[in-house]
Amino acid sequence: MLLTEKQLLQAEPHEWLGDWHPLAEQLGSAEGLLTLASVSESLRVPTVTDFDSLRQFLQQYHCQILVPHELPAIQRAFDHSCRNEVRELIQLDKELQNETALHFFSEASARVGRTQLQKLRPLRDQRIVQRYLTAVETNEARGWHTLVYGLTLTIYSLPLRQGLLGYARQTTHSFIHSAVRGMSVTEKDCRALLEQLCAPLPAALESLLIKRTAA
What we know:
This protein is an all-alpha fold and 215 residues long. The chain has helices at residues 5-10, 13-17, 24-27, 33-43, 51-82, 86-97, 106-118, 127-137, 145-155, 160-179, 187-198, 201-214.
């Protein structure tokens, strides 16, 4: 069911973009173990089998993927969307396709991004949405979930800082709670790990936004 604009404005970003990061479902899925093993190998950490290996996985995910790649991609998509720069948004999409660190979940990212982009299809007056959607449907662009997230923040006039922090926290939350199924882990342990992992995020966001202002 499509969300109305009023519902979108009242919701947290994760509620209208979707709860799942493209990798999160694999942490809790037997079918995703092979892919997850390749992700762990790429991040140079053990495959997630217990709470300690989950912590290692997420620490490296934050350091190698979330902070250096995903958050800047959201920010750049947000800025291009604010300026109605469709060609630049499509070019950014192509740049991400050449980013080695993102190769291992590019298919999953495109699946999530395209699904969420379809929810924006009824916004006929949003030229950038329609042109980006056309580019994705004609395979000119991939439709990365991070770019669709940044685009959606712009369309509904949601603050960039709030959107970035919401994405990072909800992604981490989803990873944790999908991975701990079947583990002897308490909710308190999960909350503590979430706060530990997210504690450095405000400083990382500040650095990103300072660079954005200086650019």
